[in-house]
Amino acid sequence: MYLKHFSLQELPFSITPDTSFLFKDNNHQEALNTILIALAHGDGFIKITGEVGTGKTMLCRTLLKNMADNFITAYIPNPFLPPLELYIALADELSIEHQENIGLHKLVKLITEKLIALIKQDKKVVLLIDEAQALPDDSLEALRLITNIETEKFKLIQIVLFGQPELNERLNLKKFRQLKQRITFSYTLQPLDYETATGYISHRLTHAGWNGPSCFKKDALKYLFNASRGIPRLLNILCHKSLMAAYGKGDINITRKHAKLAVDDTEDASLPASRIILGLKLILLIAAGAIFAYLSYSLVNSS
């Protein structure tokens, strides 16, 4: 690989959510602050949404890594589970011993007893669910019901949902109106802007061992940013492939030529080009309409 060629200690643009590479831009920091404030207030549901690749899983793992000592965390990365299996996953995360073929009623009782015991120890339980848009309808309702477990002053469990925009569409359905009302804090992760994206690339390079000015030339950065639409995961893929292209040619600096090779090799990165074409078609249609209107007006006046 290109590590030695660029004097790097590790791959700077892996798509695996490595929290040691966390780049604290304003967007992600605000999302993290929103979660921490909501958890401090003891609110039942918190929702974080964002398009694919905008950093939801990275944010989730950062939260897991930096939670205060008085919080007990449960993490479910794949929530495509029916209610009973979802509760079993929660019980396993909380180290609750149970029979293999336990029923839903008995399992809920065990979970309730565990939550009460933890509250008595001044511990707060937080359930983090990644890819929450994949939750079946019955399991979404099961989550709402489990937050009914509370004392006169405290929720015994708080839930943070991380999901794609489809989660918002589902929660807008009438059948989920009770759950939607319980979401007291929410935040939407946005793609990076150009300035933040260049800082993001520089941060990851430096963390991986690069020493000196960025090896990505300005024309390459603009090209990669436009192709990635500011989505961190896609930006990682394109930067990684650009480094590979430069390494293959024996170059140290990444130019637009290398960036174009990376973009041409990445299917999702072709979307901006199609948008440009659509934009040009729209302009041509508007121009044609204006010409037609002018000619029609001229014909009417001449007659």
Briefly summarize what is shown.
The chain is an alpha/beta fold. Helix content is 52%, strand content 10%.
Biggest sheet layout? 5 strands, parallel
- Widest beta sheet: strand line-up: 2-3-4-1-5
Rounded Rg: 25 Å
Q: What is the percent of helical residues?
A: 40-55%
Name the shape in a single word: elongated
Indicate the proportion of strand residues: 5-15%
Instruction: Tell me how many strands there are.
Output: 5
Unreliable stretches (pLDDT < 50, length at least 5) are: 271-280
Q: Termini distance?
A: 75 Å
Average per-residue pLDDT, rounded, comes to 89
Based on secondary structure, the structural category is alpha/beta
Query: How many helices does DSSP assign?
Result: 12
Q: What order do the helices and strands follow?
A: HEHEHHEHEHHEHHHHH
Feature tags:
303 residues, alpha/beta, 5-stranded parallel sheet, 12 helices
How would you sum up this structure, described in words?
The chain is an alpha/beta fold. 52% of the residues lie in helices and 10% in strands. The chain has helices at residues 26-41, 56-66, 83-93, 104-120, 137-146, 166-171, 177-181, 194-207, 218-228, 232-248, 256-264, 271-302; strands at 45-50, 71-76, 124-129, 158-163, 183-189. A 5-stranded parallel β-sheet has the order 2-3-4-1-5, with helices on both faces. Helix 3 crosses helix 5 (137-146). The longest helix is centred in the last third of the chain and has 32 residues, at 271-302. It starts with 25 loop residues before the first helix and ends with a helix.
